[in-house]
Design a protein that fits this description.
By secondary structure, the chain is α+β, with helices and mostly antiparallel strands. It has two domains: 144 residues, S-adenosyl-l-methionine hydroxide adenosyltransferase, N-terminal (Rossmann fold), CATH 3.40.50; 113 residues, Beta Barrel (Elongation Factor Tu (Ef-tu), domain 3), CATH 2.40.30.90. Helix content is 16%, strand content 32%. Strands 7, 8, 9, 13, 14, 15, 16 and 17 form an eight-stranded antiparallel β-sheet that branches. It has a six-stranded mixed β-sheet with strand order 2-1-3-5-4-6, sandwiched between helices. β1, α1 and β2 form a beta-alpha-beta unit. α1 packs parallel to α4. The chain starts with a strand and ends with a strand.
Length: 279
Amino acid sequence: MQPIALLTDFGTRDPYVGVMKGVIQSIAPGAPLIDLSHSVLPQNVRQAAFMLMTAYHYFPVGTVFLVVVDPGVGSSRRALIVEADGYTFIAPDNGALSYVLREIDATKSFLLENRDFQLKTVSTTFHGRDVFAPAAAHTASGRSPAEFGSAVSEIVQLPDPKLQRVADRLFGEVIYADHFGNLITSIGRLQWDSHDLQLRPAFGQQIDKVRFDVRRASVTIRDRQIESVQRTYSESPAGMLVALVGSSGFLEVAINQGSAAAVLGAEAGDVIEVQLGAG
C-alpha cells in the first residue's frame, strides 16, 4: 500500500490531524502515514508550497502527499488530485502545489468531486477530514485519480518568490522562519564548487546562472550585514549572525545557537541582498 505523507497547518494541540488519520485508517487499514509537518503557519499557503517542493523527492516514488492548508475551505475553490513524476498530490486548488509543479510536470490532474470517495456528510469547515483524507486513503488503496472527477487543465499558481540580479547584487526575500528561527530565503538552489557557490534558480525564474566567491560576498538583511557565506552554523561564534546554505540548497540567515528571526525581527517578505564577490 502506498505511503501517505501529511502536510497541514493544524498543529498538534487539537484533534484534527488525529481525526484525519482515523478516517484514512478506516478506509485503508495499514496505510503507512508520515507526518511531513503540521506546523505550517495558519493559512500560509506559500510556506506549505515551499516545504512540499523541498521535501517531496526524499520520499519513495508512489507516495501520496496530502496537503491541507486551506483558507478557502467551504468556498468555490476546487479540490485536486494530481499525478506527477510517479507521485500523487492531493490538495486544495489554492497554489499549494504550484512550486512542486514548477519542478515536475503534472501528467494527470482531476477534481475531487465523486461523492463515492468522500464521507457521507461533508462539512463546510473540515474538508481535510471529509474530502481530502478519504481521497488519500482510496488512492493508497489503488484507486485511479481519473475515478475522482473531471480532468483539470489549469491549476492555480502562486507568484514566484523574489529573485533578481542587478549588476553584482542578488535580491531575494525571506520565505519563512523555521522552528529554530533560521530565515529561509528564496535565493537558491545553491551548490558548492570548491570555495565558490553556483546558483541555479528554483521556481522556474528567468535568471542566468550565478557564480560567486563566498569569501568576498556579503549578505544584508534588515540593515545588518554579514560577511561571507559559511558552510556550517558553527563557523560563527555562538550568538553571532551567519549566512549559509541550508540543507535544501537555499540561502539561510541564522544565529549560531540562537534565533535570527527573533533577534532581527525578520519575517516572510523581508528583502535579502547578496553582494557578489568576484568568482
